[in-house]
Specification:
This protein is an alpha/beta fold. The chain has 2 domains: 157 residues, Rossmann fold (3-Layer(aba) Sandwich), CATH 3.40.50; 137 residues, 3-Layer(aba) Sandwich (Rossmann fold), CATH 3.40.50.10490. The protein has 14 helices and 9 strands. The longest helix has 23 residues. The chain is globular and about 60 Å long. It starts with a helix and ends with a helix.
């Protein structure tokens, strides 16, 4: 897995191609996908909030989408091409006669797109873990949404990313999370990053983790800390950026004061980079390297997901 991560800049240099038909730019996009196949939707809007994307992680489609006259372009995203929820979303979109495009590395969804003459983008590497293919997904989404500037910024990042330095930072940060249950907090704009950190802890480091957004956390979850016993295993990780709302930054500062007084350790990740694109990519890579280091510290295989695979086989 480490070699795949070190090769991540190659994903940013990839130039996706739409095959099997053409698409036009839309005012709104509905991204249907599960797990790693849906992550890039939040990343793209973090890079460029002007892009309107709703992420649907479920069977079918939202009722509002199928009944609204201002119908979006539906993006059906499945790395394996065999995800049952995503296949069902594809079927529902076809029945509703919605405009469609597929992103996949192969599988049944690619066969359906070719059969139905639905445009598609084929990801170039079907051998890596979907959660590590976020660079490919992000480039594909940028193309679909016409976000050329974001696509160019991603490509320009590829040769300047110091992967070894980020890996070292990840190893250092992982030491704060050994034996802990992390709670990742970010602003609404960067909520996808908090969620990504959570999922990397879950799948790669094999440890429970949770995420929330600021300011919403301050209106409910914050009070829960008054009811836990001293010596809790929780650690709050705050993911902040210079372009967060000033009042969000103030809330982060107050949490840094309040939580330690409740015996909750706080760690900080400050997003660095001149452009939002760089801040997002660096945070993604730091999350991956931190999860790999934590997996090593815990003595677990970061690649294998036996419980998930067993669950899928029983579901089938």
């Amino acid at each position: 897995m480490r070699s795949t991560v070190l090769n991540f800049p190659a994903q940013l240099k990839w130039r996706p191609v739409v095959e099997g038909g053409s698409i036009t730019l839309a005012r709104h996009y509905l991204l249907c996908g599960m797990g790693g196949s849906a992550l890039a939707g939040g990343f793209l809007t973090a890079c460029d909030p002007s892009v309107s994307i709703t992420v649907h992680r479920d069977y079918g489609l939202p009722m509002s989408i199928t009944t609204d006259s201002r119908r979006p372009l539906v993006i059906v995203s499945s790395f394996s091409g065999n995800t049952e929820e995503t296949l069902d979303a594809y079927r529902t979109a076809r029945e509703a006669k919605l405009s469609l495009i597929v992103i996949t590395a192969g599988g049944e969804i690619l066969g359906r797109a070719r059969r139905d003459k639905v445009p598609y983008i084929v990801l170039p590497d079907a051998t890596i873990e979907p959660r590590l293919a976020v660079g490919y997904f992000l480039k594909a989404l940028a193309l679909i949404a016409g976000a050329k500037e974001i696509s160019n910024e991603l490509e320009s990042l590829a040769p300047v990313l110091d992967m070894m330095s980020i890996e070292t930072e990840g190893h250092s940060f992982a030491k704060h999370l050994v034996g802990r249950l992390p709670l990742f907090y970010a602003s609404n704009r960067y909520a996808a990053l908090a969620y990504f950190w959570k999922t990397m802890m879950n799948e790669t480091a094999k440890t429970p983790a949770f995420s929330n957004i600021i300011p919403e956390e301050n209106h409910n979850e914050l009070e829960s800390f008054s009811g836990i016993s001293e010596g809790t295993l929780f650690t709050v990780v705050m993911i902040g950026s210079e372009d967060d709302h000033p009042r969000v930054n103030r809330r982060f500062a107050l949490l840094t004061e309040i939580l330690p007084s409740l015996q909750i350790p706080v760690e900080k990740i400050f997003l660095t980079g001149v452009l939002a694109t760089e801040r997002v990519i660096r945070a993604i890579l730091l999350a991956i390297f931190t999860a790999l280091a934590l997996a090593e510290a815990r003595g677990v295989d970061p690649s294998a997901v036996p419980i998930i695979e067993d669950f899928k086989s029983k579901l089938a």
